[in-house]
Design a protein that fits this description.
The chain has 205 residues and is mostly beta strands. The protein contains one helix and eleven strands.
Protein backbone atom coordinates (compact mmCIF):
# COMPACT_ATOMS: atom_id res chain seq x y z
CA UNK A 1 0.00 0.00 0.00
CA UNK A 2 2.88 2.38 0.78
CA UNK A 3 4.23 1.96 -2.74
CA UNK A 4 0.85 2.99 -4.17
CA UNK A 5 0.90 6.20 -2.13
CA UNK A 6 4.49 6.84 -3.20
CA UNK A 7 3.55 6.54 -6.89
CA UNK A 8 0.55 8.85 -6.45
CA UNK A 9 2.64 11.36 -4.48
CA UNK A 10 5.31 11.35 -7.20
CA UNK A 11 2.74 11.97 -9.91
CA UNK A 12 1.12 14.77 -7.90
CA UNK A 13 4.54 16.37 -7.44
CA UNK A 14 5.23 16.19 -11.17
CA UNK A 15 1.74 17.52 -11.88
CA UNK A 16 2.42 20.51 -9.63
CA UNK A 17 5.60 21.16 -11.59
CA UNK A 18 3.51 21.02 -14.75
CA UNK A 19 0.95 23.54 -13.47
CA UNK A 20 3.73 25.88 -12.48
CA UNK A 21 5.04 25.59 -16.02
CA UNK A 22 1.52 26.18 -17.34
CA UNK A 23 1.59 29.60 -15.77
CA UNK A 24 4.39 30.56 -18.11
CA UNK A 25 2.13 29.89 -21.11
CA UNK A 26 4.59 27.44 -22.70
CA UNK A 27 2.16 24.51 -22.92
CA UNK A 28 0.89 22.79 -26.07
CA UNK A 29 -2.01 20.33 -26.11
CA UNK A 30 -2.56 17.35 -28.40
CA UNK A 31 -5.55 15.02 -28.70
CA UNK A 32 -4.99 11.50 -29.95
CA UNK A 33 -6.31 7.97 -30.31
CA UNK A 34 -4.58 4.76 -29.25
CA UNK A 35 -5.32 1.11 -30.01
CA UNK A 36 -3.53 -2.21 -29.72
CA UNK A 37 -3.40 -5.73 -28.34
CA UNK A 38 -2.59 -6.89 -24.83
CA UNK A 39 -1.27 -10.15 -23.42
CA UNK A 40 -1.67 -10.96 -19.70
CA UNK A 41 1.25 -12.39 -17.71
CA UNK A 42 -0.37 -14.26 -14.83
CA UNK A 43 0.98 -15.77 -11.61
CA UNK A 44 -1.31 -18.01 -9.57
CA UNK A 45 -1.47 -19.34 -6.00
CA UNK A 46 -3.99 -22.14 -5.44
CA UNK A 47 -4.43 -25.29 -3.37
CA UNK A 48 -5.48 -27.06 -6.57
CA UNK A 49 -2.27 -28.27 -8.25
CA UNK A 50 -4.01 -28.92 -11.58
CA UNK A 51 -5.56 -25.45 -11.88
CA UNK A 52 -4.05 -23.13 -14.48
CA UNK A 53 -4.88 -19.76 -15.99
CA UNK A 54 -3.90 -19.54 -19.65
CA UNK A 55 -3.83 -16.01 -21.10
CA UNK A 56 -5.09 -15.11 -24.54
CA UNK A 57 -4.57 -12.01 -26.64
CA UNK A 58 -7.01 -9.20 -25.87
CA UNK A 59 -7.31 -5.62 -27.07
CA UNK A 60 -7.45 -2.08 -25.78
CA UNK A 61 -8.17 1.31 -27.29
CA UNK A 62 -9.25 4.83 -26.45
CA UNK A 63 -8.32 8.50 -26.32
CA UNK A 64 -5.17 10.31 -25.19
CA UNK A 65 -4.58 13.92 -24.20
CA UNK A 66 -1.03 15.29 -24.22
CA UNK A 67 0.26 18.43 -22.52
CA UNK A 68 3.72 19.36 -23.79
CA UNK A 69 5.21 21.59 -21.11
CA UNK A 70 8.84 21.41 -22.32
CA UNK A 71 10.52 20.67 -25.61
CA UNK A 72 11.49 17.22 -24.27
CA UNK A 73 8.86 16.50 -21.58
CA UNK A 74 5.11 16.00 -21.50
CA UNK A 75 2.19 14.78 -19.41
CA UNK A 76 -0.41 12.44 -20.88
CA UNK A 77 -3.80 11.24 -19.67
CA UNK A 78 -5.55 8.35 -21.40
CA UNK A 79 -8.99 6.76 -21.14
CA UNK A 80 -8.86 3.19 -22.48
CA UNK A 81 -11.35 0.40 -22.94
CA UNK A 82 -9.58 -2.87 -22.11
CA UNK A 83 -10.71 -6.40 -22.97
CA UNK A 84 -8.89 -9.38 -21.43
CA UNK A 85 -9.39 -13.11 -22.06
CA UNK A 86 -8.09 -15.96 -19.90
CA UNK A 87 -8.80 -19.70 -20.08
CA UNK A 88 -9.43 -21.37 -16.72
CA UNK A 89 -8.35 -25.02 -16.87
CA UNK A 90 -8.69 -27.58 -14.05
CA UNK A 91 -7.77 -31.06 -15.27
CA UNK A 92 -8.30 -32.63 -11.83
CA UNK A 93 -12.00 -31.74 -11.87
CA UNK A 94 -12.41 -31.82 -15.68
CA UNK A 95 -13.40 -28.17 -15.77
CA UNK A 96 -12.61 -25.49 -18.34
CA UNK A 97 -14.12 -22.05 -18.91
CA UNK A 98 -13.38 -18.74 -20.59
CA UNK A 99 -12.83 -15.79 -18.28
CA UNK A 100 -13.67 -12.45 -19.91
CA UNK A 101 -12.99 -9.06 -18.41
CA UNK A 102 -13.84 -5.59 -19.65
CA UNK A 103 -12.54 -2.56 -17.79
CA UNK A 104 -11.79 1.13 -18.14
CA UNK A 105 -8.15 2.03 -17.58
CA UNK A 106 -6.94 5.57 -16.96
CA UNK A 107 -3.14 5.94 -17.15
CA UNK A 108 -1.65 9.26 -15.98
CA UNK A 109 1.78 9.44 -17.55
CA UNK A 110 4.89 11.56 -17.47
CA UNK A 111 7.00 11.19 -20.61
CA UNK A 112 10.17 12.35 -22.27
CA UNK A 113 11.14 12.28 -25.92
CA UNK A 114 14.51 12.53 -27.59
CA UNK A 115 14.00 12.89 -31.28
CA UNK A 116 11.59 10.14 -32.37
CA UNK A 117 12.12 8.03 -29.24
CA UNK A 118 9.71 8.33 -26.29
CA UNK A 119 9.75 6.87 -22.79
CA UNK A 120 6.89 7.22 -20.31
CA UNK A 121 5.63 5.90 -16.98
CA UNK A 122 3.02 6.59 -14.33
CA UNK A 123 0.14 5.25 -12.24
CA UNK A 124 -2.87 3.63 -13.85
CA UNK A 125 -6.38 3.66 -12.40
CA UNK A 126 -8.63 0.70 -13.21
CA UNK A 127 -12.41 0.90 -12.90
CA UNK A 128 -15.46 -1.20 -13.88
CA UNK A 129 -13.43 -4.42 -13.79
CA UNK A 130 -15.88 -7.33 -13.38
CA UNK A 131 -14.43 -10.53 -14.90
CA UNK A 132 -16.84 -13.47 -15.14
CA UNK A 133 -16.82 -17.05 -16.36
CA UNK A 134 -19.37 -19.84 -16.86
CA UNK A 135 -19.90 -22.58 -14.28
CA UNK A 136 -22.45 -25.11 -15.54
CA UNK A 137 -24.18 -22.42 -17.57
CA UNK A 138 -24.25 -19.78 -14.84
CA UNK A 139 -22.19 -16.61 -15.02
CA UNK A 140 -19.87 -16.51 -11.99
CA UNK A 141 -17.96 -13.51 -10.70
CA UNK A 142 -14.21 -14.16 -10.55
CA UNK A 143 -13.26 -10.94 -8.77
CA UNK A 144 -11.04 -8.11 -9.93
CA UNK A 145 -7.94 -9.00 -11.92
CA UNK A 146 -6.81 -5.36 -12.01
CA UNK A 147 -6.57 -3.36 -8.76
CA UNK A 148 -7.81 0.20 -8.40
CA UNK A 149 -4.25 1.49 -8.78
CA UNK A 150 -1.44 -0.16 -10.76
CA UNK A 151 1.44 1.20 -12.82
CA UNK A 152 2.53 1.28 -16.43
CA UNK A 153 5.71 2.11 -18.35
CA UNK A 154 6.73 1.92 -21.96
CA UNK A 155 8.68 2.95 -25.03
CA UNK A 156 7.44 4.44 -28.28
CA UNK A 157 8.82 5.49 -31.66
CA UNK A 158 7.22 8.39 -33.53
CA UNK A 159 6.80 8.34 -37.30
CA UNK A 160 5.77 11.29 -39.50
CA UNK A 161 5.36 13.46 -36.35
CA UNK A 162 1.89 11.98 -35.67
CA UNK A 163 1.96 8.18 -35.79
CA UNK A 164 3.59 6.19 -32.98
CA UNK A 165 4.32 2.52 -32.31
CA UNK A 166 4.62 1.62 -28.64
CA UNK A 167 5.37 -1.27 -26.31
CA UNK A 168 4.02 -1.01 -22.78
CA UNK A 169 4.33 -3.02 -19.55
CA UNK A 170 1.42 -2.94 -17.12
CA UNK A 171 2.27 -4.04 -13.59
CA UNK A 172 0.57 -4.73 -10.26
CA UNK A 173 2.01 -4.01 -6.83
CA UNK A 174 0.34 -6.92 -5.02
CA UNK A 175 -1.58 -10.12 -5.67
CA UNK A 176 -5.37 -10.07 -5.61
CA UNK A 177 -7.90 -12.47 -4.07
CA UNK A 178 -10.24 -14.20 -6.52
CA UNK A 179 -13.05 -16.72 -6.43
CA UNK A 180 -12.68 -20.05 -8.24
CA UNK A 181 -15.52 -22.57 -8.64
CA UNK A 182 -15.65 -25.71 -10.77
CA UNK A 183 -19.23 -26.52 -9.64
CA UNK A 184 -22.13 -24.65 -8.09
CA UNK A 185 -21.38 -26.31 -4.73
CA UNK A 186 -17.68 -25.56 -4.67
CA UNK A 187 -15.85 -22.27 -4.12
CA UNK A 188 -12.32 -21.46 -3.02
CA UNK A 189 -10.14 -18.40 -2.79
CA UNK A 190 -7.10 -18.18 -5.04
CA UNK A 191 -4.45 -15.49 -5.45
CA UNK A 192 -3.57 -13.98 -8.81
CA UNK A 193 -1.30 -11.29 -10.18
CA UNK A 194 -2.15 -10.19 -13.71
CA UNK A 195 0.67 -8.13 -15.18
CA UNK A 196 0.76 -7.66 -18.92
CA UNK A 197 2.39 -6.49 -22.12
CA UNK A 198 0.70 -4.42 -24.79
CA UNK A 199 1.69 -3.38 -28.30
CA UNK A 200 -0.18 -0.59 -29.99
CA UNK A 201 -0.42 2.33 -32.35
CA UNK A 202 -1.14 5.94 -31.54
CA UNK A 203 -2.14 8.89 -33.69
CA UNK A 204 -2.12 12.55 -32.63
CA UNK A 205 -4.30 15.12 -34.34
Amino acid sequence: MKRIFHVIALYLLLSCMYFITCASGAVHTKLGIVAGINYPIISLESSCAELSLKPKVGFRGGLSFNLDFHKNFYSRAEVLFNFTRITISDTQHHFSSQLKSTSIQIPLLIGAHFGAFHIFAGPQFNVLDDPKYDVLGERTLFGRIYPTVSYTAGLAILFFKRLSVEVRYNGLFNKLSNNYSYSLKHSEEIKTKCNGLSIGLGFQF
